[in-house]
Structures are given as C-alpha cells and as structure tokens.
Amino acid sequence: MKLLLLLLGFAALAAAVPISNEEKTYPRFIEFPDGDGVMHTVDLEAEPDMELLEEINRNPANNRYLLYTRHVNNVIIKLNNYNQTTRNSRVSQTLVINDANSVTSSNFNARLPTIVVVHGWLSNQLTSTNTVIRDACLKKSDVNVIVMDWRRLASSDYATAVRGVPAVGRGLGQFLTFLNRVTGAPFNTMHLVGFSLGAHVVGNAGREIGGRAARVTGLDPAGPLWNTNSNRLRPSDGVYVEAIHTDGGTGGLGIGSAVANADFFPNGGNSQPGCVTSLCNHNRACELFAATVTNNHLVGRQCSSTLQVSLNTCTGSRLNMGNDILTKSGSGLYRVNTGRSHPF
Q: What is d(CA 105, CA 140) in angstroms, rounded to the nearest whole number?
C-alpha cells in the first residue's frame, strides 16, 4: 500500500509540473483547434504564404472592428411583420480605420473604458470565446467593447498566421491611435485582451502605441512557434501586462512560460479541473477571465519559483487574477486554485 501511494504521489507530481525555466519544444506536426473546437493537424515547418503576408503588411484595413455597447441601435429591423429595434450589445456597429464618420456616428463613447477582444487561429468575430468575454464586460459595466475580426490572416495555415501576427497587431495599434485622435479616448482607459494567437496580437498592438494601454491581457498565449519568438507578448507592451496560463504543459497549446508582468497559473497552469482535453484546458483561460470580470473572486498567491507553482506551495503576497480594473498592478508568478465549473 505504501509503495502504491508513493507511486501515485510521483505520478501526480509529474502531471502537475506545467512550466520550467527552459523553453519547451514541439514536434513538427501538432494538433491545434479552430474557434469551433475542431482539431487540425498543423505542420510547424510549413512554408508560409508570402503573398498573403505581403498583403497583410500593406493593408491594416484587413482587420474589422465591431463595436458593442449597452445602447439600442438607431436601426429598426423588420421581423415577422413587426418593427423591432436592435440592441448594440448583440448587433455590432462597424468602425473603420481612417473613416471618422464610422466612429462619430456610432455608439462609441470616449468617456467610457474601451475593451478590445482579439480571437485566435481559425476564428472570427462570432467565435464563442469573444461572446463570453463581451457579455461579461457589458453586464458588469457601461463600456465600449470592440471585437477585432482578423479572419483574413487567421484563416490561413498556422505557420503563415504566426508570421503575420506582428502586422495584424500593428494594424490594431494604428486603429487605436486613430480612435484616440478622432474621439480623444485616452490610451489609459484601454484594455486589450487576446486569446491564444490573439494574445500575441494584442502584445504587438500595445507595442505599436508605445506601451500606453492601461492593460494588456494574454489568455493562454499560444505556444507553438512562439517560445523563442521576439514578437511574442512582452511585459513592456502595456502599463500592466498579465497572462493567464491554463494549458502550458509539455505539448500543451499555451506557451507555459512567464511572458508578462504578472503571470497566473490556475491549478498549476497545465490541466484544469473538469477538463480531459488540451482544448478544454486552453479555452478555460477565457472562461476564467470572464468569470473574474463578473466576480473578481479568484486570488493568486505569489510564488518564488516554478517549482512552487507546480507543488502548490506558494505563500507570497496575494493578487486577484483577471478582472477589469484599469489601475491594476503587480508582478511575479502566481498560483490560483479554482473549481471545475463556472464561476470556478
């Protein structure tokens, strides 16, 4: 019995270790999900589509910006012979870079905080992770939520999408500069939130505006082709940069290593309670973030090492994970223990 317990203990310890000081490596072929949870075989050594990358570099207007607010749109639609107004919390208004009228005629309010949400690979504006975050933010506060749809690049093969992330991020940064110029919306009321590949997109966007965004949040930043990539999310990309790592183990979809001012590792940052697949672990970052916007209830303990994160022996200072507080600050590694279902 003692031998059995000892073996089980070692097995649990091995499964718990999500991160290390060394960059992890991936095989050439991996499985990576699209926005609907369908797994795709990815060749990490594939030749990128250089023609598409050149187009993306030339034209930041390939990105679409969809505004959601608490307002009722000034549009009436005909539905089953009844006139019905549309709510901007569900039906978006399109903002177009360098088209001031698209902004001034919209419900955008420069006096309110602006939260930008950016999806990952093979996704678009309708991807469920966007909806979860959008709805949580609008239910919590009167804010502008802008969902960036970058499907033109995100729908390409993974190797091409990775190469184009810096250009997409620069385009978002240019859009935020345009928004600031047209409306006066200050950068210190902007919170950029990106999931998976989108986490590196918002990092590059924050870099484009000189790290002036109040917050940049990376939700399980993508790992494949990013471990030694200088264009990945960095601590200097915003006034406060946070990363939430939920699938960072060996072969996981997330990067796993510290990339921000404050890096949170829920349940060790590898496998999440109630999850049996890497996809579930990966998406959990979005669910946890949305829950913290609503409740601000998940509290991390600072860790002095990655080993403490893995062993759940962190005893340092406390810092709430996620939430929507624009003046949030902090640094270091944090372990957070959560439940298996919403609100965790």
A: 25
